[in-house]
Specification:
The chain is α+β, with helices and mostly antiparallel strands and about 110 residues long. The protein has helices spanning about 15-25, 70-80, 95-105; strands at about 1-10, 30-45, 50-65, 85-90. The chain is built from three helices and four strands, in the order βαββαβα.
């Protein structure tokens, strides 16, 4: 069975937790994990040639493929960045785990 992971880079563990909790409350996701980021480097502003360094956290949001569109919209509203990094992966999981995710990520069925 396939589920989806949304990987979102956040400015802090607090922001990652706030996003995860709200999506969980709204039942867009079944669960989330937060991983501290030691360092990120990127050009900012875009095409400036200036390298920006940051720390923060990544939140991994576990959901169903059909929930990702609504979840992405909510993440964009909750995130502090103008251009948040919201990435998706399709993940093959056991049927038992997939059924649990399906039973918890029920936003569209309310």
């Amino acid at each position: 069975m396939k589920i989806a992971w949304l990987l979102v880079n956040c400015n802090s563990i607090r922001e990652a937790d706030r996003i995860g909790k709200e999506l969980l409350r709204q039942r867009y996701i079944a669960c989330y994990d937060i991983i501290a980021r030691q360092k990120a480097a990127y050009f900012w502003p875009p095409k400036s040639g200036k390298i920006e360094n940051a720390k923060g956290a990544m939140v991994i949001l576990v959901t169903l493929p059909k929930q990702t569109s609504g979840a992405r919209k909510m993440i964009a509203q909750l995130h502090g960045d103008t251009l948040p990094s919201i990435n998706g992966l399709s993940v093959e999981v056991s049927t038992t785990y997939g059924q649990w995710v399906k039973g918890e990520a029920t936003h569209a069925y309310k």
